[in-house]
Structure formats: C-alpha cells, structure tokens
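tokens incoming
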C-alpha cells in the first residue's frame, strides 16, 4: 500500500442484477487499513423492479427503504463527502471489492446518475482476480469461502453491506500482508 492511494472496501446490496433497471439498496464502505472508519447507507429504491431472491439475501424490503432510506442523490452525496473526508490531500481513492465488477457497476451508475461524477474514477480492484493471480488458483477457487480457508480471517460475511465491506477489507489486508512476505 502506498500513501498516495487509499484502498476503500465497498459492498452493496441491490434489488437485482443490473443498475438502471434495479435499485441500489445499501452501501457499506470502510478503509482497508482502518475498517472502523466506515459508512453505511440505506437508499430509497429508484425503481419498483426487483428480484425476490436479491431481497431475501439482504433482508431489506422496498417498503421499509421507501419510508426510511435516504434519497439516492443524498446518499451518494454523503458517500462522496465521506470519501473526501477520509482522504489526505493528493490521495487517490481506490475501490476494492469482492466481485468488484458487480458492486462497482452499481456505485458507478449511481454516482454518475445522481452526482455526474464518480470519485473512484473508472477502475476498481477485484479481489477475486487479485487472489487468483497472487495464489495461482483457478477462477472457481476464488470464492470467499476458499479465500477464508487460505487467509484465515477473524470475521465472516453476513449480507449486511457494512459487515461484508469490513470482511472484504480484512481479506484484502491479509492478501497485501502476504504479498509483502513474498
């Protein structure tokens, strides 16, 4: 890890498989180096379309989020402000995710739709790809359960976006520490 990069573990829960048609329901993010420095946001759905299985996994309901969630623009503004307050001058925020293509696609879409810019830019670190390269394994061996066997984190995923972001942060920190030993 270099001082000019700030690794941010991000996890999301959604109402379905693709942004634009389905809603971003919650965002959890934390600093990889300091997982206690975190943010958790629940958003009002911006589409009624949903996959019942996606909602069952997260335990979130569209009705509750409609009443209690933040408007998407407000949520993305809070996320942007948290990122800015977490960075020192000149640092580049780097999105880190377990299956980053999925999570990043929703975060990128929402940042552009509601704030017209994405503070992460157009890239992300996918932990599955990183693990595959670092450990010389096959793609099917990049499941979080396999990473857990190899890296032995203390935490576990729960399908709460913040809990999962912290779990991912721990896994990525362990990968970085292992890289330093090689």
């Amino acid at each position: 890890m270099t001082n000019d990069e700030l690794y941010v573990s991000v996890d999301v829960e959604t109402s379905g498989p693709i942004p634009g048609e389905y809603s971003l329901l919650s965002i959890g993010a934390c600093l990889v180096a300091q997982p206690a420095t975190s943010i958790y946001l629940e958003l009002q759905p911006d589409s009624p379309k949903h996959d019942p299985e996606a909602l069952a996994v997260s335990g979130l309901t569209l009705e509750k989020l409609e009443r209690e969630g933040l408007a998407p623009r407000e949520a993305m503004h809070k996320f942007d402000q948290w990122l800015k307050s977490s960075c020192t001058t000149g640092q580049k925020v780097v999105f880190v995710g377990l299956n980053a293509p999925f999570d990043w696609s929703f975060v990128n879409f929402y940042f552009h739709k509601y704030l017209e810019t994405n503070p992460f830019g157009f890239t992300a670190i996918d932990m599955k790809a990183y693990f595959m390269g670092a450990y010389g394994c096959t793609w099917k061996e990049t499941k979080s359960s396999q990473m857990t066997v190899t890296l032995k984190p203390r935490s576990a995923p729960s399908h709460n976006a913040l809990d999962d972001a912290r779990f991912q942060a721990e896994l990525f920190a362990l990968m970085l520490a292992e890289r330093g030993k090689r």
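note: Residues 161-181 form the longest helix (21 residues).
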